[in-house]
Amino acid sequence: MTPSEFMELVTPFKDKVFRLAKRLLISTEEAEDATQEVMLKLWSAKNKIGSYRSVEAFAMTMTRNFCLDRLKSKQSGNLKLVHSNYSDPSASLQKEVEAKDSLGWVRQIMDELPEQQRMVLQLRDVEDYEFEEIEALLDMKPTAVRVTLSRARKAVREKLIEKHRYGIG
Amino acid sequence: MELDKINQLLEKYFEATATEAEERELRDYFAKGPVAPYHEAYAPMFSYFSEAGKERYTKQVPLKTRSRSYGWVSIAAAAVLMIGLYFGKQARDQREAEIAYQETRKALGLIAQNLDRGTEKVAYLGQFEQTKKKLLNND
Asked: What residue ranges are annotated as transmembrane (chain B) (predicted)?
């Protein structure tokens, strides 16, 4: 497989990989690293790629596992990285603008949700994956997906209404 | 669209019991607007979700085209080095042998020269012997 053929194969979902990574890791830089890592892993497995039912599903599962590992190793280590300390020069202006409106609130609210809820919400409401796909990707039972999704949505709603009431996030 | 239906859909949405089609309907309602004032509180959620899906990964992935010939190159390089060392050593040995040969030749030549000089002197001895024999025979 040539690099251009490979890029053609991954282009439809590489943004989804990046967005899921960013949802979990929050920092743009770390999400970019994770995406690159996932792509390189796929590239090195390119000879086996044909045998996977869906390369996209495989990539998404890989992204989830990679990011969760990242988060776990970060928590277990003595070094605690606080995401809000990162400065992201390219996005800072955009964030500043965004944070002032309610869209930014939703992002902030989502960043505070438990990882599982964040993932379900990302896959269902942002990426529009079907329930069955989400079950497979996250290795969850159908009812578990629904329960997690419901909790996540309600949490966002509650906090959003709270913020609305107090005016400023 | 009737508010009643949207309310129902919203309820199902938050209980996560809506079907994919129903959720799509709800999303369309918030995307197209205008939204009833009663539903405005939910609007940021839906507009954020559709915004968040637009973020792109813009970095290039550095794909290394590490073909199999790479391995062969290192083997070939090792072989060339070994052959080079082998022949290099051989040539050096040969040159050393040549020098040793020349030195030996010189030394042997020197010996031969001196030996020649020696035998010249010995020739006088032969003369002496002959004279001695002559004298003895005359007796």
From this structure: 69-88
ipTM, two decimals, is 0.80
Integer Cα distance of B52 and A104 in angstroms = 10
Contact B63 A40 (CB under 8 A): yes
CB-based contact A32 B44, cutoff 8 Å: no
Looking at beta carbons, which residues of chain B come within 8 Å of A126?
49, 52-53
Q: Which CATH class is domain A89-169?
A: mainly alpha
**Whether CATH 1.10.1740.10 fits A1-86:** yes
A21's tokens: 């990574």
Q: Tens digits of per-residue pLDDT, B3-42? A: 889 999 999 999 999 999 999 999 999 998 788 888 888 8
CB contact under 8 A, B63 and A32: no
